[in-house]
Design goal:
Blueprint: E1 3-7, H1 15-31, E2 34-40, H2 54-65, E3 69-73, H3 77-80, H4 84-95, E4 97-103, H5 116-125, E5 129-133, E6 137-138, E7 141-142, H6 145-153, H7 157-164, E8 168-173, H8 180-184, E9 189-191, E10 203-211, E11 214-223, E12 234-239, E13 250-261, H9 268-287
Parallel strand pairs: 1-2, 1-4, 2-3, 4-5
Antiparallel strand pairs: 6-7, 8-13, 9-12, 10-11, 10-13, 11-12
Helix pairs in contact: 6-7
């Protein structure tokens, strides 16, 4: 089956990406074609920090925008040297492209020589459909992955949600930790994100966690756990009302609100009291959410 292909990297899958992906899905449905999005296995830009892993990007693209298939291209040295027109020809040859969709600032091919104007002209000459989606402006700001990286790094996940169109998200397989949560009476799930994934600012957040198709509210600590002499930055989540063993299971954490900065408490008892207070704050936040 021929395809409508959305071209981009889609890190974060924000509202600007959403406009492009929605256009792709709409054209595919109208013309009876397959909706496809293309991304890369690593950042094609100089900033190697990522908002989303390949897995999270794929999940969001398909789940939020009705894309049938996500193609992950390896961003290799060889790929970097492909001329822009050869890249477009490969989309027809290898992916049955009948229509291409890109954003207003899309660049592609060796040294970024390809741009929306060249893409449009090439498609016209080769009998393909082509759409170029204009920039999306929210609150006077052009939505971009760069803006979102700044907000997430500052811990302002509520503001980030306005530009994402969804909460900042992080997923992975729960890893064994030091079992300190069990000792304190609130077992936590420990995620170890890849080093290139940008973590929210250190502190405690109101979150929702998804495990095996069920969603729980809770709190997540991003930091070094100074009260218990932790080593390295961890992402530890306590899911309210979850009863069971999370080790080895897939967990998705959605960050909804920053509650407090990370701090060192005088003892473990004080830490436990604060975590319980944070859990109550989280419960109140989500109970007030319409």
């Amino acid at each position: 089956m021929q395809s409508v292909i959305a071209l981009g990297f889609f890190d974060g899958v924000h509202l600007g990406h959403g406009a492009l992906l929605s256009r792709t899905a709409g054209i595919a449905a109208q013309d009876g074609l397959r909706a496809v999005a293309m991304t890369f296995d690593r950042s094609p830009g100089k900033d190697g920090r990522l908002l989303t892993s390949v897995e999270d990007r794929t999940r969001l693209i398909r789940g939020l925008y009705g894309i049938d298939e996500v193609v992950v291209l390896p961003f290799t040295e060889e790929f970097m040297h492909i001329p822009w027109d050869d890249f477009l020809a490969s989309l027809v040859r290898d992916h049955s492209a009948a229509h291409l969709v890109c954003g207003w600032d899309y660049r592609f091919g060796y040294h970024g020589a390809g741009d929306p104007a060249k893409l449009t002209a090439w498609c016209r000459a080769h009998g393909l459909g082509c759409d170029v989606v204009d920039k999306l402006v929210v609150d006077g700001i052009t939505v971009s992955s760069t803006i979102l990286k700044d907000l997430v790094e500052a811990g302002d996940v509520e503001a980030a949600c306005r530009y994402y169109g969804h909460p900042h998200t992080l997923s992975g397989i729960v890893q064994p930790g030091r079992h300190l949560g069990h000792t304190l009476g609130f077992p936590t799930a420990n995620l170890v994100p890849p080093p290139e994934i940008l973590l929210p600012a250190r502190g405690v957040y109101a979150v929702k966690g998804s495990v095996e198709g069920r969603v729980y509210t809770g709190v997540c600590n991003v930091g070094t756990r100074p009260t218990v002499h932790g080593r390295g930055v961890t992402v530890e989540t306590w899911l309210r009302d979850f009863d069971g063993d999370l080790y080895g299971k897939a967990l998705t954490v959605d960050f909804h609100r920053y509650l407090r900065p990370e701090k060192q408490f005088p003892d473990v008892r004080a830490l436990k009291e604060e975590v319980l207070r944070n859990q109550a704050q989280s419960a109140a936040y989500f109970s007030a959410d319409p």
